[in-house]
Amino acid sequence: MTSIETQVLQPYKYGFTTDIDADIVPPGLSEDVIRLISTKKGEPEWMLEWRLKAYRHWLTMIEPTWANVKYGPIDYQAISYYAAPKQLPRLDSLDQVDPKLLETFDKLGIPIAEQKRLAGVAVDAVFDSVSVATTFRAELAKYGVIFCPMSEAIREHPELVRQYLGSVVPTNDNFFAALNSAVFTDGSFAFIPKGVRCPLELSTYFRINASSTGQFERTLIVAEEGSHVSYLEGCSAPTRDENQLHAAVVELVALDNAQIKYSTIQNWYPGDAEGKGGIYNFVTKRGACRGMNSKISWTQVETGSAITWKYPGCLLQGDGSIGEFYSVAVTNHRQQADTGTKMIHIGKNTKSTIVSKGISAGHGQNTYRGLVKIMKGAEGARNYSQCDSMLIGSECGAHTFPYIDVRNSTAIMEHEASTSKIGEDQIFYCKQRGLSAEDAVSMIVNGFCKEVFKELPMEFAVEAQNLLGISLEGSVG
Amino acid sequence: MTAKPPMLEIRDLHASVEGNEILRGVSLTVRTGEVHAIMGPNGSGKSTLAQVLAGHPAYMVTAGSVHYDGKDLLDMDPEERAREGVFLAFQYPVSIRGITNSYFLRSAVNAIRKHKGLPELDPLDFLQVLEDKLKAIGWDDSFMNRAVNEGFSGGEKKRNEILQLAVLEPRLAILDETDSGLDIDALKTVAEAVNRLRGPDRSFVVVTHYQRLLNYIVPDYVHVLAEGRIVKSGGKELALALEEKGYDWLKPASVGTAA
User: Fold this and answer.
1) A245 near A208, Cβ under 8 Å?
2) What is the pLDDT along chain A (477 residues), one digit of tens a residue?
3) Full strand arrangement of the beta sheet holding B86-89
4) Which of residues 160-219 of A touch B (CB under 8 A)?
5) Is A438 near chain B, with CB under 8 Å?
6) Does A429 touch chain B (CB under 8 A)?
7) Residue of B nearest to A444 (CA)
8) ipTM of model
9) Which end of chain A is more exposed for a tag (fewer CB within 10 A), N or C?
10) Chain B contact for A461, CB < 8 A?
11) Nearest residue to A358 (alpha-carbon basis) of A387, A325, A319
12) How far apart are the first and last CA of chain A?
């Protein structure tokens, strides 16, 4: 192994387990299990029906195999679909939260206790299948902003949930989305009313803790006319030999002139150097720019998971709407990532921008897969795509599959791609100026990812820095 | 002048790359404040000597010793050598995408300051240092906010190396063919900056193929390297003799023509 590789292949720092009494449903999936989840959540009948419909459809579906990833068969009957720490019913005061949970999130750098909260960020903390705390809710309510766990939204705001849930990612959209629709447990719901610029960054932190469980969260964000919101998502899991399934669905809806900025730092346990263990991250994320001149921007920094299968996309329905996708995907060890985006141009004068940075090290395999589709009525659509790959070492791989489907001749499409390798010469140059090999690699990788990092909100830029071991100084802002 | 202590002492240095021996017993003493020129034909080992002194991992030292300020230089990591004041102006500087020159330089300055137990400079302090240095060598700051060497012309890259030299204030500066690829105006600009950086506490090893550079950076000593050995040493007039007669008359007859 070269000096560069040793620098990049750092051990996973979030692999601890919290010892806590949990209410875990035995492994297995059936209509009864779905009924049980629905009952535990205190859901109305319509929600249960929605789940069952999704489940029945899922039974007819086949797991997709087209992705450029390899893994053994998943036994869906061996997974437990619900795990929740035993605690008092959720109350407004955090005094009721088990101190072990507060401690867990503290350790992850996501303090949720009153006195330690992150300034300017409202956090919904999800532990296995349930949300354990949501901060700053009263402050947000003053602006009419709703930010709460999904299970609560189903009970408290059924009219909003019924209107929007599944409207961007239908229950039968794909295998994993159908599974999620049947068994999803928690996640976040955010609603920004007309004309409101959300005063805080909204954030959800997902933590998997229990073993042999899957995490199936569901997030829905609705931005009404003229509203703005920036949402951050983070995640991690303990170090385990087994593979754990994480199949989430995220739906975003932006009405006229609304803007949603969705940022993700994905740091699920990636498995060990030999590829043992790690999270299977099979996620469907989609935003609908439903209104005129609306804008949805996805920024993701993917460093974790054994396998990532994820294509956050935008349906550009409103005339003049804008979709953006900025991505850094890192694959080390035996990690595999097949990730990219889908930009579907439907409205007139719609614009999309794609900037993808793939970094492969060790035996990592990194695939960019992106679709840009210009529909017949999308007069004057524009797309700019840039896909850059960086290789560290000689055993890793980078692959690019751009799909372009243009049905309107007025479209303007640009695509750029590059592949580069961190060389010993680059490292030596930095060392000759007094920098350590570690700082040299950080600097080179940081420079490579700069266009994506500058899209991250400040609060998250720091987290990205911690995750990649990268100094962001000079590249942010 | 010879009363000064030796800063760099190279003794019978042998080095190879990918199994080929390039340096075959180089000995050289550079005292504090002296400027030594290393000349020689292509393939004589000039650049190898520069790379070995800086610690490039591709070169294997097979015999001999190098002492810098009395310390075993070969025992030090490249970054440690740099922090101790050994600077190499590269013949082919690499580019680093997305990292500005000023950020890169500040990181380097701070790595060196940290090594010396000095507090790190924040961006504002550094800007002041940078301005002073630029003024000292008579240059503007036009490329400080561009990415390191990215899209730089050959001349800009060489200038950038000298600027780094000015800011990092090494005790021993090794210039590896800094004149290559420069037109006469650029050469003069670079040489003038180097001359301003000369001082009683700083030594230079100037590696060059052509005598031209030495018209502007006048050395104290000139050494001719051929077939991996120093075959002739002298004062600055030796460079002029080489200009006139070429290198062939100095080559060890037994080894034949250099590649």
Assistant:
1) no
2) 344 444 455 567 777 777 777 788 888 999 999 999 999 989 999 999 999 999 999 999 999 998 888 988 889 999 889 888 776 555 455 566 777 777 777 777 776 766 566 666 778 887 777 777 787 888 899 999 999 999 999 999 999 999 999 999 999 999 999 999 999 988 899 999 999 999 888 888 887 777 778 889 999 999 999 999 999 888 776 777 778 888 999 999 999 999 999 998 887 777 777 878 888 899 999 999 999 999 999 999 888 888 999 999 999 999 999 999 999 988 888 889 999 999 999 999 999 999 999 988 888 899 999 999 999 999 999 999 999 999 888 888 999 999 999 999 999 999 999 888 887 889 999 999 999 988 888 888 888 888 888 888 776 666 665 555 432 222 222
3) B86-89, B172-176, B203-208, B35-39, B221-226, B229-234
4) none
5) no
6) yes
7) B96
8) 0.94
9) C
10) no
11) A387
12) 35
Q: Which residues of A touch B78 (CB under 8 A)?
A: 428, 431-432
**Are B82 and A434 in contact (CB < 8 Å)?**
yes
Looking up tokens 């806590």 gives A20
Element (H, E) at A261: strand A259-266
CA distance A219 to A184: 10
Can you tell me the distance from the alpha carbon of B215 to that of B208, in angstroms, rounded to the nearest whole number? 12
Residue with tokens 């928690």: A186
Whole-structure pTM value: 0.82
Chain B residues in contact with chain A using a Cβ-Cβ cutoff of 8 Å: 54-58, 77-79, 81-83, 87-88, 90, 93-94, 96-100, 102-104, 106-108, 111-112, 115, 147, 164, 168
